[in-house]
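cache lookup: miss for this entity combination. No prior model stored, computing from scratch. Input as submitted by user K.M.:
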Amino acid sequence: MVSVKGIALSLLVATGVASAALSTAALGQDSGLARTPPMGWNSWNHFGTSVTDAIIRAQADAMVSSGMKDVGYTYVNIDDGWEGQRDASGVLYPNEKFPDMKQLADYVHSKGLKLGIYSTPGPKTCGGFAGSQDHEEQDAQQFAAWGIDYLKYDWCSGQGDLKAAFTKMHDALQRTGRPIVYSVCEYGMERVWAWGPSVGGNLWRTTMDIADNYDRMSLIGFMQNGLERFAGPGHWNDPDMLEVGNGGMNLDEYRTHVGLWAILAAPLIAGNDLSKMTAETVSLLTNPEVIAVDQDSAGIQGRRVAQEGPLEVWMKPLADGTKAVGLFNRSTHGLPNVVSFHDVGALERVTVRDLWTRKDLGTFDGSFTANLNAHSVMLITLRDATATAPPSTLSQ
Ligand code: GLA
């Protein structure tokens, strides 16, 4: 296992600096939570409805022992498949796979982590389990009593007005008095990004489900372009959870997945079995410089600045004036890709740093070229070198 202890956590922790396109007044419901995109793990992509109490505990243990907690992963989220039956008074119980939800929350909290849970505004979840319809108040109180810190609320069999349904649960969560991150999941219907904050969403899914293959992941990820003005501290576009470590993509493709999600300031919710990770998977999930791009305090979602067929250049401005840049090759064969410094903010002379290898590559004038494998990315930062360059090089 790779340990990344001792990195500058100040880079990774929310600072509360809000420089998003949306003003606080426009948000209305800002809860103060999720100042940077939420980081954690969710059971769905790997375990589906077979999730158990023991699996959740094992993931919490591994989040600590792998070093993921040290780089900012915090939420351990139970997705669909935990729900049991309601009693005569309507109280919802977990099923036999979760003997004591409060004890499980205590265990996760004892590790310095937080516990998330899942429900739906409809009568049934997507997996056919009991939903919260007509029990919103009761369920919110139950979640708070258990010690839940994050709710993914998934439309599934929901009916009627989307905004009203999501507001109803948000208001019920508010009345519990417990800070609970609110993850809105309705697959991007009715342009959720335009009203997600007004229903109290800290994040909202912008697409249908991801799958563990390059075509699906890249379709979802690259289609986020244009949504950047709707994201910012406390309210994030969510292109769905990570598939890293689930085995369906190669190293270049998983780097594209994580690198694109970082440029997008997307929530980083791992979706693999953390208790059985290769060193490669750990390093994909815990590269501190890549995570620092995602978690940058300015909270600006990156965007595409250039495209030539399958070659794309994306840029995310960081709080310190540095530009994070992703040079992507979406084709099935190797190609060079060039970033013109003008396209990312008119820097002429810059120092380029490779974020995956964590090495400075030198100073470049005007542009930088990366030779890219099929389905790969080079993730770099560009730092203005004009001020520090010696006079002789300035005149060149
Ligand atoms: C939907 C969601 C998934 C997952 C499943 C659970 O498909 O989009 O992320 O929560 O439901 O049934």
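stored under new cache key. Residues 44, 79-80, 125-127, 154, 185, 209 surround alpha-D-galactopyranose (CB under 6 Å).
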